[in-house]
Design goal:
Radius of gyration: 33 Å
Helix content: 55-70%
Number of strands: 0
Strand content: under 5%
Shape: rod-shaped
Length: 152
């Protein structure tokens, strides 16, 4: 035994962390190389040449870890995009409902609004009148109470 390492995910994040044994074996033909260069094709050609000089039986194949992880979590990205689209659609439908409610309320109180305007009411007062019966003010009150606990 060479050492013990802290638990880490070596599979998908959807699976539990399970025990793993890491063995230094030169027979499986897998090597992980960290490369910092802009000349990836040149490095791959050099690695292919070195590989072929060491073994002729096994073909040289390579892949990038970021591409493997990208492929592994492709479904999560698609799910996130779908959830974002449906959340936006839900907010849009909710806004349409609020707009319809405001329009319906204004339609029901057309005569009252007209009389108030004739008697000199300002726009701010009429808007407060229309919004006063809705749950928007209760929501604002709830938010204020959550923001400042002393506000009662």
């Amino acid at each position: 035994m060479v050492g013990v390492v802290k638990d880490f995910n070596f599979r998908s994040l959807h699976q539990r962390i399970t025990p793993v044994i890491m063995v230094l074996d030169r027979m499986d033909g897998t090597t992980i190389v960290r490369v910092r260069t802009d000349d990836i094709p040149g490095v791959l050609a050099s690695m292919r040449k070195s590989w072929n000089s060491l073994t002729a039986e096994a073909p040289f194949s390579w892949s990038f870890l970021d591409e493997r992880y990208d492929q592994m979590y492709k479904n999560e990205r698609h799910t996130g995009i779908l959830l974002t689209i449906f959340a936006g659609l839900t907010i849009f439908v909710a806004c349409l409902g609020l707009f319809g409610l405001a329009t319906f309320t204004a339609e029901q109180r057309t005569k009252e609004i007209g009389i108030r305007k004739v008697l000199g009411a300002d726009v701010k007062g009429i808007v407060a009148l229309l919004a006063g019966g809705s749950c928007v003010w209760w929501g604002w009150l709830f938010c204020w109470r959550r923001r400042w606990p002393g506000f009662s």
